[in-house]
Amino acid sequence: MMGILAALVTVLAWGTWLAPSQNVPLRRQEIRTFYVATANLIVALAVALWRGSWELDAGAFWWPFAGGLVWAVSGLCAFTATANLGIAKAFGIWAPLNIVVSLVAGRVIFGEFAHPSRTQLTVLVLAVLLIVAGVVLIVAAKPGAEQQSGTRSVPRGLLGALGAGVLWGLYFVPVELAGVSPWAGALPLAIGIFAGSTVLLLLTRHGPRLAAAQDYLRVTGTGVLWSVGNFGMLMLVDAWGAGRGYTVSQLSLVVNALVGIYWLKEPAPRTRGALLTLGGCALATIGGVVIGALKS
Length: 296
Prior knowledge:
Elements: H1 2-16, H2 29-51, H3 58-85, H4 87-110, H5 118-140, H6 145-148, H7 154-167, H8 172-178, H9 182-204, H10 213-240, H11 242-249, H12 252-262, H13 272-295
Helix pairs in contact: 1-10, 1-12, 2-3, 2-9, 2-10, 3-4, 3-7, 3-8, 3-9, 4-5, 4-7, 4-12, 4-13, 5-13, 10-11, 11-13, 12-13
């Protein structure tokens, strides 16, 4: 029962976390990253206080902290992607790339899949091809006229999605190298995310002020949802194991695509772009689930 509850929390939170702040007017995406990091740090502090998990030596602290710095840059890339491509397309590109990059990192750094069987190798190649096909469909889903107006830039969005795909597939590596549990690494990771996001904001020479009072609630709501999904994932891993837990979390891609198309109209429902995006997300999700099942 706890595993099912954790799965629902993870999929719903990570499937919707970008939506609250998607249409908040921002001078720079670094501002959104800063507020997301702040909200995540507050949630992480509350969870650490509740669990009493404060004791970490310096070595165990700095590795997750470094992972947080990587996450901060990843978050900026992701927000740049969603601002220029829309949530459904951006998430549909970076999420499957996260899986591929994490798989490569697991093989190169941690020696996973050292001696795969012929069947495993065949299934793995087919799964990667599904992911690539899904991403190609999503990229081919050109935005409508309303999305091409204003300051949106498809090349900038694609670069942001690729950056998020690579870096969010790697930020866990320092946490793994620290040799601590995800629960123990959650707080120093959150501190690193906050520190990195603060530096990124300071480099822009823009203050964190937003246009309207409700905008503060919306951008921090994005951070709270991501943090809730993160801790839901930790509970899911505790209940079902890392492989199954990671597999189930990929269903958030489907939720995210539905939110982007049917709530935010990016791209608008019943358009060619929407159909291609949904089809691409479906293929990429199947590929990700297969890889997650193999990793377990």
